[in-house]
Design goal:
The chain is built from 2 helices and 13 strands. With 156 residues, the protein is mostly beta strands. Strands 3, 5, 6, 10, 11, 12 and 13 form a 7-stranded antiparallel β-sheet that branches. Strands 2-1-4 form a 3-stranded antiparallel β-sheet, with no helix packed on it.
Length: 156
Amino acid sequence: MRAIWLEGRRIRLRDDVPVPEPPPGEALVRVHQAGICNTDLELVRGYYPYTGILGHEFVGTVQQGPEPLRGRRVVGEINAVCGCCSACRAGRRTHCERRTVLGIVGRHGAFADYLTLPSPSRSPPRSRSRSRFLCTPATGCSSWGTGSSASWSRRP
């Protein structure tokens, strides 16, 4: 699959990245659009030593996963948590001891044709329009899409 890969503070477009296999409890999502935010730019500048696929703001369609989500358009939570550690059990999921962060810490991101996320981390987007979900709360941003869906977008 295609992906924007960060390594050694350099980005490049790769077309040889394998489509991820979702582990149990996760779903495979085909990415339609992904927003570029300042965190992505800071990672390229070296703010955190990340190697892999950037991007954590996206909309996509569930290809594999729980039956109620298959074929549904979804957006994802940036934090993928275990749900079992003391922090998760106490309701402090952003402090999960085994947390991964989409496109930042321990998990490939959304600047690719596909990604995987734990099933409870996804929710349907609020807007039915593909061009309205990208920029909350920013006033405008660019997007990288798969195929012809890439666009510039402004949220009303």
